[in-house]
Design brief:
By secondary structure, this protein is of the alpha+beta class. It contains five helices and five strands, in the order H-H-H-E-E-E-H-E-E-H. Strands 1-2-3-4-5 form a five-stranded mixed β-sheet, sandwiched between helices. Helix 1 crosses helix 3.
Length: about 170
Amino acid sequence: MVAAARISKIATDRGTWIHDIAEKHFNGEDVSEVLRNAPSDVRQMSKDLITTVASGVEEIWGQEQVLWSNKLKYAGRTDMVGIWKGKPTIIDFKTSRKLKKKQWIEDYFMQATFYSMAFFELTNYPIKDIAILISVNKGEDFQVFHEKVGNWMKPLHSKIKEYKGIFL
């Protein structure tokens, strides 16, 4: 149990560090000093994330944007909203120790679907696309998963209903 908690803490800290570096970079801040002082895994994963985002993002509308839904009674913070490969997209960053299969990341798609729904509720602007970007430790291939929000609305509503049922 202690080993699992330690591994979880390392992963959480690494993910936070990588997210912070990416956010600063895309805000136009110089991150070279931070990268120089970062552990090699953080440095590699941050560079991979920045390169991948830069290759697909055409316009950034917001980073670390707080979104909420009065209808669903939930809130969250999306990593990035903008134009990804020509389409308005919810862009979410993840880190992993190993490559993921698409069927393993259904919760990520539901999370991004919620962000899309909340964005629409707040702005009346529909975002129909999701890009999940996964930076993998040890130089493995960077993963990009694309999905349509419409494919995940029913599973998200089922998950919310199930979750709320626990507390009734």
